[in-house]
Design goal:
Layout lengths: L2 H28 L18 H9 L5 H19 L2 E4 L1 H17 L4 H7 L6 E5 L26 H8 L3 E6 L11 E2 L3 E2 L15 H8 L6 E5 L5 H7 L2 E4 L17 H6 L1 E6 L5 H9 L18 E4 L14 H18 L4 E2 L8 H8 L7 H5 L8 H9 L7 H10 L8 H21 L3 E6 L19 H8 L4 E8 L5 E8 L4 H15 L10
Parallel strand pairs: 2-3, 2-6, 9-10, 9-11
Antiparallel strand pairs: 1-3, 4-5, 6-8, 7-8, 7-12, 11-13, 12-13
Keywords: Hydrolase
Protein name: Fatty-acid amide hydrolase 2
InterPro entries: Amidase_dom, AS_sf, FAAH2
Amino acid sequence: MGFAECIDIFLKMLFAAFDVFFRNMFRLIYGKTGKKMPAIKDLVLLESATSLAYKIRNGKLSSLDVTNSFIERIHETNKLLNCVVDNRFEDARKEAQAADDLIKSGSVSSESLAKEKPFLGVPFTTKDCIAVKDMLHTSGLYKRKDVKASEDAATIKLLRAAGAIPIALTNVSELCMWWESNNPVHGRTNNPYDSNRIVGGSSGGEGCIQAAAGSAFGIGSDIGGSIRMPCFFNGVFGHKPSKFVVSNEGQFPAAVNREQDSFLGIGPMVRRAEDLTPLLKVIAGKNAESLKLDEPVDLKKIKFFYQDCDTGSSFVSSVDPEIKECFSKIAVHLEKAHKIKAQKMELEKFAQSKDMWLYNMKAGPPGFDMQLGNLEKPINLNSELLKWFAGCSNHTFVALATALLENTGPGNGSETYRKYVLMRDHFRMEMKDMLGDDGVFIYPTHPTPAPYHNEPLFKPFNFSYTGIFNVLTLPATHIPMGLSKSGLPIGVQVVANDKNDRLCLAVARELEKAFGGWVPPQIDA
């Protein structure tokens, strides 16, 4: 064993001890379990978006009543959770009434509505970085605290055309570049299963409102796990689509070049797996045809591969035993229910996930310091760090540290950068060859259940379990697998080859049937 290998082993052991210490320290700081979201009293809140759409267009429910149910739920939960940061409740009510009037008029048949406006009258939410006309568009940046969108993002336009009604915006991390949703504009969002825990980021407010049943469905975006991690921490489903299928137009901050745009994806966040496919079909627009979403998927013809850890990445937490147990449960289910033998893998390149993501994200100007300056001029990092320590900065420490990290070390075009781009390319080909057109890969979404607030500062690279699939540009779906012994959501992600999103979504539906999917709070109805 060489000197470098000895150092690597020592550092891994040191981080493991460090990880255990800080986990126990935060447990002592927060003490007992925090508050949980209130019980659900209205059974409408438990319905899938697909079911609500069907009942609304067939006159079994009114859009106005459904919209009011979700608005009331937001009022009931948001004081505890702080996940909703702006709303258009009155306009939403008017649009819901207009949908009801259209249906009552009988001028359009239910069949035609199902085809032309498949989500007519269904209320939804989206994160505060995806533009909704006349609503806040801050992305958690203080300089944008009063900015409102002048028009809808491309995905919002498509959803409105499908009849869906935006009702509220949800919280994000500052400039959407951290995995806890906390910013100087709207503050911190709390986990609905334990208010002392994080909701993830950057679509953390959206994952939270879905788990709390405050919205029929949500839309998030994902450049390093920003859909899948919040879905993991909040126990709901979320899908990062294949590259360039869903338009990223209307996000702030935008990707700085086409390659970074390929890492970024807008996708659905839902409580019920049946909603993933129809929503993806809507937001993909004319590109939906390339996904063949209507093509039936025969599970028995899918090749299943799985891996329950990254094989030992430096400075990344070990996968909790309860999460590892999910993989054996899935393997047993596949064999018993479908006679499918899932193949366990040990792909060692996953140990380089964080480095591949970090270096592939070094896309060049504008830098993160310029984005923190709202693209007007870069902030003075030294000055802002001094202000932060004095308690008077308008930025989070994480955002400043991100900008500092970007400005240090090897940059875009360096030898190290080229090394990790080449490694990514080789790994991408390896994954594509393994998956083919009939394979899926099941992998941890995150190594631990939701950490305590601020705990991610001491384990910043745990996002690498999701981030690797952004730079590999493969579609991925988070699938909830129930609650841990401590009552926190756990789950896995399933990955397929480019444009094979339908395989991920089929597996999500299957595992929901087998293991239950989203676990709602107490129901008192």
